[in-house]
Amino acid sequence: MAFSERVDRLKSSLIREILAAAQRPEVMSFAGGLPAEPMLPEVSWERMPASIGQYGMSEGEPALREAIAEQARALGVPCAASQVLVLSGSQQALDLVSKLYIDKGTEVLLEAPTYLAALQSFQLFGADCLTVPLQADGIDLQVLRARLQRHKPAFAYLIPTFQNPSGMRYSAAKREAVAALLDEFGVTLLEDEPYRDLVFDEVEARPVVSHLRKSSWIYMGTLSKTLLPGLRVGYLIATPDLFPHLLRLKQAADLHTNRIGQWQALQWLGSEHYRQHLQALRLFYRERRDAMQLALEEHFGDIAQWHLPQGGLFFWLALKQPVDTRVLLQAALARNVAFMPGEAFFVEPERNPGYLRLNFSHVAPERMGEGLRRLAEVVRAEQKVWRESAGELSVQGA
Amino acid sequence: MAFSERVDRLKSSLIREILAAAQRPEVMSFAGGLPAEPMLPEVSWERMPASIGQYGMSEGEPALREAIAEQARALGVPCAASQVLVLSGSQQALDLVSKLYIDKGTEVLLEAPTYLAALQSFQLFGADCLTVPLQADGIDLQVLRARLQRHKPAFAYLIPTFQNPSGMRYSAAKREAVAALLDEFGVTLLEDEPYRDLVFDEVEARPVVSHLRKSSWIYMGTLSKTLLPGLRVGYLIATPDLFPHLLRLKQAADLHTNRIGQWQALQWLGSEHYRQHLQALRLFYRERRDAMQLALEEHFGDIAQWHLPQGGLFFWLALKQPVDTRVLLQAALARNVAFMPGEAFFVEPERNPGYLRLNFSHVAPERMGEGLRRLAEVVRAEQKVWRESAGELSVQGA
């Protein structure tokens, strides 16, 4: 069977397999980034015009593009509706940007850890992934400068607000500094912000693209985390030099985004009832985050470290005694608990053991304690095995 | 600006530009493949469960996959629901198949002429396109055999039922013969059937994939031509050796197809009201086809030849005195008439002048005559210019 070279780089998707396992109703899943079912808003389709059933424009619905541009301008992003491309979920931006930039061996720059599906898309197209580690207030600036001095990546892919998987938020100072560095080295920025609206404490955090003065940029957003993921409506906003290429790639990929989802999105974006819904969502998720923080302190306090996330959907745990967390998965699923092994979020999984990504939005608070108790037991058991085999090894080595 | 090599192959989309021009309400558009507005069915969203708003499976909704498989089995395609992948429009299959097979220089085999967007997708990924001409009853078997003797294309892309743009339908004998040839040479078949259900005279026309005994295959279908294109719901059915790869590529592209459109599609597929709707659609489009046939005889009878299409949405005109029909576009649009120049459907446009694709579903019958009268005038004027300059050339050459 003669497939393309790229198919050899098509990894089995850990996410898909875990999510499939997590669909059994008895499983407590900390794995995905699924919105909580009770917070899916009630939507009405009554006033949708019949003409929405017809083919539409590849750019997206004009009124929705205007509403998205207005929301972005309110965040400080200078843009017009003509720069907005409505997508079949913001995931699609990763596919389009990969097509726009990546040949085999093209260098791209990523945070470590980074969003697993982005990594998969860039690697599928053959990218060489340069990485820069994250600190508590954002990307490591010294390493970033060093990378840019030696390399000329096609773009930098950053998730500055409630980063996935780490939950970190770049400080205002770091946002400015990153933009200045990208301008200095003439590197295009791909900024991904799916979680911006899921914020528990408001602080100044303008998008990094709003600080750029020279570099081209693409800003990605979605309605999947705040409205309904099943609509599959996301978007990108791009500088005018990039937009026409992205539009043609969008058209080649799937002609245009489904118009019923776009119509529904437009009923919410910028409205008073959307503001109220976001407010309720934040309160609800903050409570779940707090419940998980308590349960984590009880069950993981002695074996892991973490930051309290100020937004987004995830805790990012660093085990004090690292083990390969992919090994834990089977034992956890056997106990009806799902989570996301941290290794999957790194370009070099083997070198980054001992992290777990835990979603706090999906499992009901009254089941969280039990789920985390089981997961901690699985971790402790594996650490014991690991210590014992390490002990044997050092005995053998002695 | 360092883009990927593939972007140099990203052609400006003629379709997109013509469709944009055709959106002006005063334009009579014979260009697109848009369903007639009056035949967009009324749909109800009342009983859609709220849970449809959540993330879904990359494969598609299980009940919809089963309904699609059942419909395909009724056509003679041996398949299970597990082989069905629901797509964001069947256009997406072209993107996924390109990713699965095409590196720079990979040979693929196409009909000449063929669907413009398929050609664009394959060329974007760097394919070398081999072509085989069409005859009145389907692809030229002798040329097909000759091509397969000398080449080993990654797949053959065929549209055997109401081919786009030519409107041809492969005879039953040719379907079997093509399948036998592909089996003999071990070539994978990508069979695209968007227009199968828009049939005006039923004859035996089983999908070519149903005749294959050895070769792998992918069968593409859509609900865009018979239900609502704005839903963006299409599908592919693939042999089990190909399905897992296509599924992963689908997940990497956009996670999953929008679930609201999938839910709506499921309300129709296989139902009695869908059968009635299809019946009404066929009657309606047959009337429009007949109206266009009359108008064509009046205005194009002396300057073009064509077959009466037995299904689909298009007439394919061959000018008796060929001119580059792309040149006609501006003059036609200036007179508020849009059409699709035939050159765009060929791998070698310069070598195939003098064809026009005319859609008969969109323009109301009472305006068709006027639209075609204007278009014929534009053609005659260009032919006159062409004759005169040819005359000058032969004078100069003499």
Task: Describe it.
Chains A, B: Homodimer. Chains A, B: Its cofactor is pyridoxal 5'-phosphate. Chains A, B: Keywords: Aminotransferase, Pyridoxal phosphate, Transferase. Two copies of one chain form a homodimer. By secondary structure, chain A is an alpha/beta fold. Chain A folds into two domains: 159 residues, Aspartate Aminotransferase, domain 1 (Alpha-Beta Complex), CATH 3.90.1150.10; 223 residues, Type I PLP-dependent aspartate aminotransferase-like (Major domain) (Aspartate Aminotransferase, domain 2, 3-Layer(aba) Sandwich), CATH 3.40.640. In chain A, helix 6 links the parallel strand 6 and strand 7. The radius of gyration of chain A is 21 Å and the shape is globular. Chain A has an eight-stranded mixed β-sheet, sandwiched between helices. Chain A has a four-stranded antiparallel β-sheet with strand order 10-11-14-13, with no helix packed on it. The model of chain A has no long low-confidence stretch (mean pLDDT 94). Chain A has eleven helices and 14 strands. In chain A, helix 3 packs parallel to helix 4, helix 5 runs parallel beside helix 6 and helix 9 packs across helix 11. Chains A and B meet through helix 3, helix 4, helix 7 and helix 8 of A and helix 3, helix 4, helix 7 and helix 8 of B.
